[in-house]
C-alpha cells in the first residue's frame, strides 16, 4: 500500500510537457504523468473534444520554429519552466517504396517531425533545467531506428536513428549538471497511427488489413509476445523513467517491443 501511494503521487509538483499528446502513446503518457501527480501541459496541432480537463493544452505545429517558440513562451510565462519534457511527437506518413519514392521535401518533413522538433524544445528548456541542476528529458523514438524496413520506413527510420544518437550525446553533455536524458523505443503499438499505416500498406499491396498485420509481424521477424503493445504499457515505462525511482538512469535507449528486436 505504501509503495502504491508513493507511485501515485511521486511526481507531485512537477511540471511536464508532452508533445503529440492527443492520441496514442502521447496521450497515454500525458494521462499517466497526470495520474502520478504532475502538472501536465499537452501540445499537438488540434485539441480533441474528450481531452482531460486537468491538462493544460497548447495548440501548435512543432515542425514550425515560430510555433515552437510560442509553446516555450507560454510554458515559461505560465509555469516558469519545466521539470519533465517528453518529446513524443513523431510520424511515419511518407510514401512507401524506398529511395525513389522520397523527394527532398519528404526527407525534410521526416527530419522536422521526428528529430528537429525535439532538438528545438530541448534547446529552449534546458537552460533552466541546468541552472536548477535537475530535469528529465525523454525522447520517444522507435524500434524502426534500429530495424529499418526500406519498403515502408526509410526516411522515418533514418530520422529516428538520428534522434537516438542525438539523445545519447545530449545525455553525456548534461548529466554532470543533474539533467537526465533517455530514449524509449516502442515497437508495434495499438494506436490510430499504426492502424492508418497498416491500412495504407494493405491498400497499396491489395490485401486485407488482417493479412497485412500478419505480414508486418512476419517482416519484423515475429513478436514473441504475439500482440501489439497497448499505449498504456509504454506510458508506464515513461512514467517510471521520469520519476525519482529512476534517478541513476540516463543515456539509455529502452526497447519496448514484446521481444521483437532480433539483437541483444
TrEMBL record:
Looking up SMART domains in the UniProt record yields: PKS_KR
Record-annotated Ketoreductase domain positions: 14-187
Q: Which Gene3D superfamilies match?
A: NAD(P)-binding Rossmann-like Domain
Q: Which UniProt keywords apply?
A: Oxidoreductase
Pfam families to which the protein is assigned, alphabetical? adh_short_C2
Residues in a coiled coil are none
- The source's domain of life comes to Bacteria
Q: Which InterPro entries match?
A: KR_dom (IPR057326), NAD(P)-bd_dom_sf (IPR036291), SDR_fam (IPR002347)
Q: Determine if Ribosomal protein is one of this entry's keywords.
A: no
Keyword Kinase in annotation: no
**Which residues belong to the signal peptide in this entry?**
none
Give the similarity note. Belongs to the short-chain dehydrogenases/reductases (SDR) family.
PANTHER family given in the database record: 3-OXOACYL-[ACYL-CARRIER-PROTEIN] REDUCTASE, SHORT-CHAIN DEHYDROGENASES/REDUCTASES FAMILY MEMBER
UniProt-recorded name of the protein: SDR family oxidoreductase
Q: Which organism is it from?
A: Larkinella bovis
- Lineage of origin: Bacteria, Pseudomonadati, Bacteroidota, Cytophagia, Cytophagales
